[in-house]
């Protein structure tokens, strides 16, 4: 009995080993809340837009610095949107203050980052997306 169980255990071991690799390859790309510096985002939103899911994380840093992480997971078949870069703009909620369009740099397939400095503290709204197809999130910068 001991001897005949051995090949089975070996087979199970190989199967599990291969399974771990398959899982690593197919597991959904979830934006890691604890990115690089381990900070939680100040604000974040995941919005279903027409071609896929747009995920936006805003990290308010020291001295009104902001790091923005964008991820876009295109629906299968909607390949075109994943290739074009989204655009971003910011506005202050209580003031006529807008026209802040930070530059996005690609960080991987369907992922972009922007780092910029806000001109003043307060409540801001950030909007990102492809033309009219957008996600929005508000955040406080103090
Ligand atoms: Cu202002």
Looking at the structure, the CATH topology of the domain at 43-141 is Immunoglobulin-like
Query: Biggest sheet, strands in spatial order?
Result: 1-2-3-6-5
By DSSP, the count of extended strands is 8
Based on CA atoms alone, the radius of gyration comes out at: 21 Å
CATH superfamily of the domain at 43-141: Immunoglobulins
Regarding quaternary structure, what we see is single chain
CATH class of the domain at 43-141: Mainly Beta
CATH architecture descriptor of the domain at 43-141: Sandwich
* Count of DSSP-assigned helices: 2
Which small-molecule ligands are present, each listed once?
copper (II) ion
Task: Walk me through the structure.
This protein is of the alpha+beta class and about 140 residues long. The chain has a domain at about 45-140: Immunoglobulins (Immunoglobulin-like, Sandwich), CATH 2.60.40.10. It has 2 helices and 8 strands. The strands form 2 sheets. Strands 1-2-3-6-5 form a 5-stranded antiparallel β-sheet, with no helix packed on it. The protein has a 3-stranded antiparallel β-sheet with strand order 4-7-8, with no helix packed on it. Strand 1 (about 45-50) and strand 2 (about 50-60) form a beta hairpin. The longest helix has 25 residues, at about 1-25. The N and C termini lie far apart (about 70 Å). The structure holds copper (II) ion. Copper (II) ion binds near residues 92, 97 and 122.
